[in-house]
Amino acid sequence: MRNTRCMGSYDFDLCVVGAGSAGYAAATTARGLGKSVALADGEGPLAGLCILRGCMPSKTLLRSAEIAHLVRTAPELGVRVGEVRYDVPHIVRRKRRIIADFAADRVDGIRSFPLFQGRVRFTGRDTLAVGEHEIRARRFVIATGSVINIPPIPGLAEAGYITSDDVLDMEELPSSIVVLGGGAVAAELAQYLARLGCRTTILQRSATLLSGEDPDVGTALREALTQDGIRVVTETALLGVTRDAKGKCVRFRHAGREEEVCADEIFVALGRRPNVDGFGFEAAGIAYDAGGVRVDPYLRTTNPVIYAAGDVTGVVELVHVAVYGGAQAARNAFSENPQPLNYDLFGARAVFTDPQVGVAGLSEKQCRERGIAYVSARYPFAELGKAITAGLTQGFVKMLAAPDARILGVTIVGAEAADLIHEAIALLYFKARTHDVMEMPHLHPTLAEIMTYPAEELCERLEHEAHAVVTP
Ligand SMILES: Cc1cc2nc3c(=O)[nH]c(=O)nc-3n(C[C@H](O)[C@H](O)[C@H](O)COP(=O)(O)OP(=O)(O)OC[C@H]3O[C@@H](n4cnc5c(N)ncnc54)[C@H](O)[C@@H]3O)c2cc1C
Questions:
Q1: Residue 385 sits in the same domain as residue 338
Q2: Which CATH number does the domain housing residue 425 bear?
Q3: Which of 53, 160, 406, 425 has the most CB atoms at less than 10 Å from its CB?
Q4: Which ligand 1 atom lies nearest to the CA of residue 18?
């Protein structure tokens, strides 16, 4: 640790607060611009949410659950195997090994910067205290991430509950669980638990799972999760939790009636909230509230020398957005020509359930909210050659185009949707039109080929059916 005043009255060109995905991207980008950069973080383990308790551990566990499912369903394809048994301690040990390697690599990168660890708080408009050190920097990037959101549900704290952090590290699974919430983390980890034999109920407040997406996405996912034996109850209002001989019981209102579901454990998956408390933002003139640090389209906070990126801004909680935001914040902080963030392109997202969900560009919901006219076409995997041969027939592709045939967005629910969606991202990046998809080669038989079907339908409809355009 050091606190040298080496550049006039500033110690560093940039000090990044929070060394997770956004912070690390900001630091490496600024260093690439020739700037002197320090990182400040807390006393806890380094490497960030995605590596330690987010994307990577969850996907590692999901793979085991997917293989269990494949083995269980193998007889449908004529492959006879024995009874499926799970070794959860082995699954979790494998995850720990993989995560330890990712984390060690990232920590090496983090430690290549001057690193200050301790209690972090702003003490002025360009001054940050970290433990006993004080750092003055020309610019700051705040990237302190998010924390798990636990709403005040009567009786929940007394009954006890677990969060995604616990699910990712559980060596012994409960025999039954109630999952509160129906977002991406809830759906992914509910499927993990269910496929490893845990009787799982999802209680979701909205009418569909993944309520931010078009309703057909949540409906298709619900069908799939139901096939995994998960009970999905939507349009619920949580009333309270009790604990008795039946286990942990959640009372909720549904379809005008009061109901109760009891299980060994309750998994609270009701989202995360920006990590904004206790950083002394007031001393630096940084406006924030429970929705996050307030930023402009260039990620600048209300203090013009301080930027913010990643989950702490409360905009989009995805790691590629955190990396993009961190890098762009660092560039903007030192640029005469700052660039606004392009969330329409970078807001592309995936959910790693089986079937997966991939969304790029605009959804129908977003087109309607923004008053954008569009035409939509859908094609089911159940009619695609490769999907039929592979037995991967769940889901669909939906493509939206503007009346001038420019592709506005693509939604995929289906096998490998998280990878397939990258063709859509490329189409959107290059501002492609529907006929471009038809002119590009698509190999046969592949899952990617499915993109050509809605594109073809859109070409035809745009040419012959003026009434096909949905005008909000
Ligand atoms: C279970 C789960 C699965 C997920 N899966 C995916 C996925 O598949 N794909 C995807 O895109 N996203 C996924 N996410 C979301 C993704 O992990 C986050 O959006 C992303 O990691 C946020 O990065 P960040 O840099 O904003 O925050 P973080 O990586 O959390 O970094 C915050 C940093 O701030 C530091 N910090 C926190 N508090 C303090 C303090 N008081 N003082 C000093 N330092 C502090 C932390 O130590 C950390 O280093 C998942 C999240 C969860 C929970």
A1: no
A2: 3.30.390.30
A3: 53
A4: 34
Full residue range of the structural domain in which residue 25 is found: 5-148+273-343
pLDDT digits (tens, 9 = 90+) for 238-287: 999 999 999 999 999 999 999 999 999 999 999 999 999 999 999 999 99
With a threshold of 0.70, does the pTM exceed it? Answer: yes
Residues 324-363: pLDDT tens digits?
999 999 999 999 999 999 999 999 999 999 999 999 999 9
Q: Is 319 in the pocket of ligand 1 (CB under 6 A)?
A: yes
- Could you tell me if the CB of 322 is within 6 A of ligand 1? yes
Give a yes or no: residue 350 inside a domain: no
Ligand 1: which residue has its CA nearest to atom 5? 55
Q: Of ligand 1's atoms, which has the minimum distance to the CA of residue 44?
A: 47
The closest of 455, 443, 467 to 379, measured between CA atoms, is: 455
In a domain, 456, yes or no: yes
Amino acid at 272: R
Which amino acid residue places its CA nearest to atom 20 of ligand 1? Answer: 319
